[in-house]
Design a protein that fits this description.
Blueprint: H1 2-35, H2 46-57, E1 73-75, E2 86-88, E3 94-95, H3 110-122, H4 129-136, H5 140-154, E4 168-176, E5 197-204, E6 209-215, H6 220-230, E7 236-240, H7 246-249, E8 254-258, H8 276-293, H9 301-313, H10 322-331, H11 340-343
Parallel strand pairs: 4-7, 7-8
Antiparallel strand pairs: 1-2, 2-3, 4-5, 5-6
Helix pairs in contact: 2-3, 3-10, 4-5, 5-9, 8-9
Length: about 350
């Protein structure tokens, strides 16, 4: 009898433990749902999405894109009025926050645009148009065009020179894909890099910022002006042994070289002399381009570079979280309208 009582007690203990675990799991799921950024109202309601975008593009209130008026703008509240429409009582024209941005003339809902912006901003190696097409329920053509518009918004206009405080700036070039302007489809590509797209990148080791350029060739006459325009004279330049850095390197406070052809990737004399930081940037760029996008035409490459530069310059290691990165991207949509005709040229 005593044995049976102990057995019942053990069984009741097990049942209580299982019930507690199920309750805890349910509470965790509820907490996760509450804390998820994707549960925000502006991802699901177009009206909330417009309010979210307006707060970032018009922090001091609506501005008429036609005449620039900020005083006499009123939101239209009619039953048949589209969401987010304002009327300027100075020039008597209606407008929305979309005008003059990457959203202009788009028929895709604003909340879907915000979903796409968050997905692109938070994906370390990018997200393909096919994936956006499946995830957002839009056509592949719309997803492709939307991706390019978002990349255009990621293009940063900051041209302040790297290494301004005597810091180290790493400069290197890489090659990717196939430039059909050099060797059209069907021609034998051969070995080497001549037929590939050429990219020149600079990374400021102190600030952790990257800046990339599509270049036509890797001659000194092409590379030297870019290096000269983007580096402060007090910067310490670090490159590999490529000859096209030799002359321009003399214009800066210091120029250190690592001999990659001899198998040297970190100087034995000075362990701070290397180009491993920029090689790390190239590894993220190439894994995204080859693993996610797989193909990129030469005339679109500058936008892909802007995308990878933006995410690298606003990465978690620099204290920028996904939602903050998406917010910064959203603030860059103004004045960067892109039409389908210009995109496909």
């Amino acid at each position: 009898m005593h044995f049976l009582d102990n057995g019942k007690l053990f069984l009741l203990t097990i049942l209580y433990f299982v019930d507690s675990m199920q309750t805890t799991a349910m509470e965790c799921r509820q907490m996760t749902a509450k804390n998820s950024i994707l549960s925000a109202a502006y991802f699901h309601s177009e009206e909330a999405a417009y309010a979210f975008v307006e707060a970032r593009i018009w922090p001091r209130g609506p501005v008429c894109p036609h005449c620039g008026s900020v005083e006499r703008n009123r939101k239209m509240q009619g039953k048949s009025t589209r969401i987010g429409v304002y009327k300027c009582y100075d020039c008597r024209k209606p407008f929305t926050v979309k005008i003059g941005t990457i959203f202009e003339a788009s028929h895709i809902s604003m909340n879907v645009w915000l979903q796409a912006i968050f997905l692109v901003a938070s994906s370390k190696k990018g997200i393909s148009s096919n994936q956006l097409h499946r995830s957002l329920g839009i056509t592949l053509k719309s997803a492709w065009f939307m991706s390019h518009r978002i990349r255009e918004a990621m293009r940063e206009g900051n041209l302040s020179p790297f290494g301004a405080n005597g810091g180290v700036v790493e400069v290197d070039e890489t090659f990717i894909g196939h430039d059909k302007n050099i060797k059209p489809k069907g021609q034998k590509r051969g070995r080497g890099y001549h037929h590939k797209n050429k990219v020149l990148s600079l990374v400021d080791r102190d600030s952790g910022q990257a800046r990339s350029f599509v270049v036509d060739d890797v001659r000194a006459t092409t590379i030297a002006p870019i290096v000269r325009e983007n580096l402060a004279r007090e910067a310490k330049l670090m490159t590999d042994e490529a000859a096209y850095y030799t002359m321009v390197g003399r214009e800066f406070a210091d120029h250190e070289i690592v001999q990659h052809q001899k198998g040297e990737y970190v100087s034995k004399k000075n362990r701070s002399v290397h180009t491993n930081t920029i090689e790390g940037f190239f590894s993220i760029f190439k894994r995204g381009m080859k693993g996610v996008y797989q193909h990129c035409a030469h005339n679109h490459l500058h936008r892909y570079l802007a995308e990878f530069d933006f995410r690298y310059n606003n990465r978690i290691a620099l204290g920028v979280e996904d939602s903050e990165r998406a917010d910064k991207l959203l603030k860059g949509v103004v004045g960067k309208r892109l039409t389908y005709q210009t995109t496909t040229i």
